[in-house]
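One thing: can you check what follows?
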Amino acid sequence: MSPWLTYLLAFILAAIFSLGLTPRMLNAALKFGIVDAPDNVLKGHRRPVPYLGGLAIYLAFLLALAGTVKFDGQVLGILLAGSILVVIGLVDDLGQIGPWTKLTGQLVAVVVLLKSGIFIQLVMLPLWISLPVSILWLLAVTNAFNLIDIMDGLSAGTAVIAALALLVMAHLGGLVTAAVILAALAGACAGFLKYNFQPARIYMGDSGALFIGLLLGALAMNNAYPERNLVAALAPAIILGVPLFDMLFVMYIRYRRGMSVMLGSPDHVALRLRKWRFSTRQTVMISYGVTAFLGVAAVAMSLGTRNQALAVLAGLAVAGLVCAVLFKRIDMSL
């Protein structure tokens, strides 16, 4: 079977399973009172919204992979690490875990990935540098997707687009198994998005956001890059630029205010866009558009020469700094 047909099959299967499982998780969450109540600060929805959407994404993802991928050591490592974060996130959704305990669980999942041979492998980085950088990368992407899960459809839709862009990168690098996994993840998130787009009927919760972030971070690390263009090694970070930019921006704002970066605050880029008179749907669609643009830019960096990739990277860096200055000027106190 053609690799692209396998990718399509994995995507469709995951989407179908997600479409069927999500309403069942919605009903289960309502039955057991697993809901997210509004607080009029970060949570602006008008009524309690059920959690457990992350379990639907997780199960749909597993079911789609059952018939489309070979379970070698690295695949099993990814599934085990993801399962650990699903459990950690679910306990956190139930309000029974603290931030440091959650971080410890994330570190355990990261260690599983490292033991499975999944870490940043660049010719210019020795092992004693690549391992800590891999840990930092995985924790950053995992928590970045958790942080942007603050608006209907934002995290799930961004994940769909980012996963598809990473799929193209994986295919170009000859990493068919990684591409199939990314297709299944994109399909599971796409099916869930039907119920999560505004007005959301269900949220993915930490169980879904942490799972998605870890998988995207892990699969991004394993993307090949052309040896003639080492700058293309940064392409995965470009693809995941929306959640990473938001995380760094929020951390900077909180640091300047003398706040703990572990505490929540209404400083996210999406909330600032909404304060800028954009509606929730417009804000989410802008985020989708930026993610798609970054995906195209990342693929272009990978296919181009070193100088072309540097030019794209420089342009994106300047655009990011300009956006950061503009977002910082938005008064969120009113």
About this structure: The chain has one domain: 3-328.
